[in-house]
Amino acid sequence: FGPADFSHGLGAAGVWDDPRLLEARRRVAEAAQAHDKIAGTVASPANLDELLDLGYRFLSMGSDVIALTAYCESTMAEFLNRPGFSSV
């Protein structure tokens, strides 16, 4: 289940608590279990237990976009915190 893609399709990009998204996520897990398949989605430490309780068993811990964003933010912070560095 791709929550980012699904939220975009709903017209509610990045609204992770949208009831339609939560319902779809639940239904995907139920359908996978009913057909003896493994449900998968993106997980974080904050929602790991909830996803396991729903029946998700294939959990991705992130994406290239998330990792690249975190890297760029931390690198830029290091540059900006250096004495004498100007972002202009």
Q: What's the structural blueprint in terms of helices and strands?
A:
Layout: H1 3-10, H2 19-34, E1 39-42, H3 48-54, E2 56-60, H4 64-80
Parallel strand pairs: 1-2
Walk me through the structure:
This protein has helices at residues 3-10, 19-34, 48-54, 64-80, and strands at residues 39-42, 56-60. It has a domain at 3-62. The protein is elongated, with a radius of gyration of 18 Å. It is mostly helical. The protein has four helices and two strands; from the N terminus they run H-H-E-H-E-H.
Average pLDDT confidence is: 92
Q: In order across it, which strands form the biggest sheet?
A: 1-2
What profile does the largest beta sheet have?
A: 2 strands, parallel
Q: Element order, helices and strands? A: HHEHEH
Structural class: mainly alpha
What is Rg? 18 Å
Find the count of extended strands (DSSP E, 2+ residues).
2
The share of residues in extended strands comes to: 5-15%
Helix content: 40-55%
* Contiguous uncertain segments of 5+ residues: none
Overall form: elongated
Number of helices: 4
Distance linking N and C termini: 42 Å
What attributes does this structure have?
88 residues, mainly alpha, elongated
